[in-house]
Specification:
This protein is α/β, with parallel strands linked by helices. The chain is built from eight helices and seven strands; from the N terminus they run H-E-E-H-H-E-H-E-E-E-H-E-H-H-H. The chain has a single domain, classed as Alkaline Phosphatase, subunit A. Bound molecules: zinc ion. It is found in: Cell membrane.
Amino acid sequence: MLSHTENVANFEALPTYLARHGADVIWRTNNWGEPAIDVSSYVKASDLRSSCKGEGCKLDEVLLTNLIETIESSTKQKILIVLHTKGSHGPSYYSRYTASFNQFKPVCREEEISKCTSQELINAYDNTILYTDHFLAALIAKLESLQNIPSAMMYVSDHGESLGEQGLYLHGTPYSFAPDYQKNIPFLLWASDSMQSHKQIDLELSQQGASHTHFNVFHTVLGAFDFQSPIYRKDLDVLSTNFSPSQSK
Ligand SMILES: [Zn+2]
């Protein structure tokens, strides 16, 4: 997801690349398993918790703590903030959301999820989606409150999850025979009004390309920052008027 090319054997991850070229790159994590990265600031959820208020502080919402203050206090013109959430990672789907998002019931509360009924597992997973929706709405509301700073948000999953279809659970099935449940992912973009006018973005043009992939991430972020780079590919930048879904494999 952080690579500019499918040739992932030897690449510089997007956050490291941007930090090396002068952007303020802040990585906040409530998860693990990141590649080697060299950024301006690497912050764990446990470092944010003491300043966080509310029930969501033990969950992904902790990553929103003092977010606006962090952006406004940056001395750089270009700021990339990565919020590495737990999202809908299994097997403990039931532990990924606060009580008010326990809407689909009953839910699976077993670590050994194959002991649950299919519906209990789906219910717990669907509750994580409700919580993620809430998380993204809260994030957008914060960005909307930014005065005089154009901003955009991109939300991309690293993978989907199998919930017992064809006897498969979780993720990590080798790509060549992984089911679509693990390969098809959400990819959301939001841009503030000032960002849309500053960049002359027409979100209508960016909607629902047939073949968006993880390789759109690097080039779309570079384009949003107006980074000039020989490795930048306008055809993979979904906010570019030259974006061509057919070429983005
Ligand atoms: Zn993952």
